[in-house]
Amino acid sequence: MGHDHKHEHCECHEEHHHEGGVKESAIKIGVATVLLIAAVVIEKHTQLPTWAYLLIYMVPYLVVGWETLREAAEGLLHGEALSEDFLMSVATLGALGIGFMPGAETQFPEAVFVMLFFQLGEMFESIAEGRSRRSIGHLMDIRPDVAHVDAGEQIEDRHPSEIPIGTIIIIRPGEKVPLDGIVLEGSSSLDTVALTGESVPRNIGKDDEILSGCVNLSGVLKVRTTKAFGESTASRILELVENATEHKSRSESFITKFAKIYTPIVVALAVLVAIVPSLITGEWATWVYRGLMFLVVSCPCALVISVPLSFFGGIGGASRKGILIKGANLMDTLRRVRTVVFDKTGTLTEGVFEVSAVHPDIIGTTELLHLAAHVERHSTHPIAMALRNAYPDEADDCTISAIEEVAGQGATALVNGRRVAVGNSRLMEAEGAAWRPCHHPGTIVHVSIDGEYAGHIVISDRVKADAASAILSLRAAGVRRTVMLTGDQASVAAGVASEVGVDEYYAGLLPGDKVARLESELGEGAVAFVGDGINDAPVLARADVGIAMGALGSDAAIEAADVVLMDDKPSALAEAIRIARRTVRIATENIWFAVGVKVLVLAMASVGLATMWMAVFADVGVTVLAVLNAMRALK
Description:
This protein is α+β, with helices and mostly antiparallel strands. 53% of the residues lie in helices and 18% in strands.
């Protein structure tokens, strides 16, 4: 409880601290600008010794640069000599000192201008980065601070972290759902866009599950909580998004290693540029000035900040659409996906079985459903549930006894003294019933009465509305092969494969068979496996990218998968691949832009064509532009 409050307080404190820092920087820059103009006017209209002008220019320099000098000194004490603050401090102090060299012109105004521009760039960079992080913060602001507890005669307001499992809470219209639970009373529509990206409201009523992070749009709901605050759906999503940036992408890992090698090399070159030509030509002021420009350009700040920010933005933008990507490293893999392997049930199909046809033989349609429902009355199998749903009225005078499940075949029971068998063709053969085949797509459930064939019932699973368009979208996104795996029979698999348009399908597979089949697909390009995340955990773990779909509220799915599609739509997969490619493309643009400008200015500085202004742009200006470009990943 205390931890959660502390966390919120820290976030709030950080936001105020950030805003205060920007205002303070703006004031310093304004004051320093006025003082610099005054110093330039004094120098133009007076004749004073060089040291006197230095003292005059040091006032605006220290006003705007004191913080940078202090950070540089602290970095030195902690062994971080090649920080941006240190390099900028050495460059500007060196420019101030050049004026005292024999035959050299003073660089006092330029040194102050450089520090001023550096601080201006830092301020804009801070504003851009703050906006990017606030955008994700507002996007993920899905946990309310209060829950209304039904305490009998009165309603008590408490923080959700204080509420134990099993508590009765009231959720009013317009309020965010604070905790996961089951609806006890009331009906309403829920805005689930924060979780799923889906704009269409979801209707909810008594006995339905309700998830934290949704917004109650219409009716008052009485809910019994089923999860603690820290384990609720909203908290889990926030945790995933916050932790995602800890897993570095290949681009980020490259930049970290690149900076450690690149910066010392360029600093060494700066020293050589300042000393070697000076010893040969004797023009110390000229070559020290060029060496100082090398120092300013050398800091890889644009890369170190903008590349992680690009991935941070991409992860936040994806979460807005109900796509949770667990790490920046997965962006790299997701963009290289060339083969997508789907589980069938619950992924390409609804996973909700229903009776689609009834073919009776010796009894009527209603009686056939009636008998099948009675035999399957205690089974939890989806097929049994479909039969019971087709004939829900069990309040009759039938007596049912001796119910027996036959593994892999079906079930038998005595209904009013008659032996009724409900199952597949193997069970019919065991009962001695001459069953008839059916070419209707779906699972065929045969029924016999006292060994005589009574007919069959066809149960099918609906294909999701956007499954076929999702396959087309994947092809448009550059996916070369789509494969469907299922434990269902070949005839059912063939019908679904034909309807959705996958390239290949494999039926009758056990979980181990699915892993073996997936491994045969591994090779050129990355392979993604899309499943429901509960019974497909081994395959999700084996794929290059495991994607759990329709995982709203499913802990097993969130744990097993690399990417979680919070809604139940296969079309979100193509969107996830597009977001990954766009994010990596933005990061790559920043890398090439930053390195290109730095190399150009370094080359110009070495032959005397660059100024200190250009050097500062190559560092601070490029960083600001790269950060602004990185913010595009949010959209």
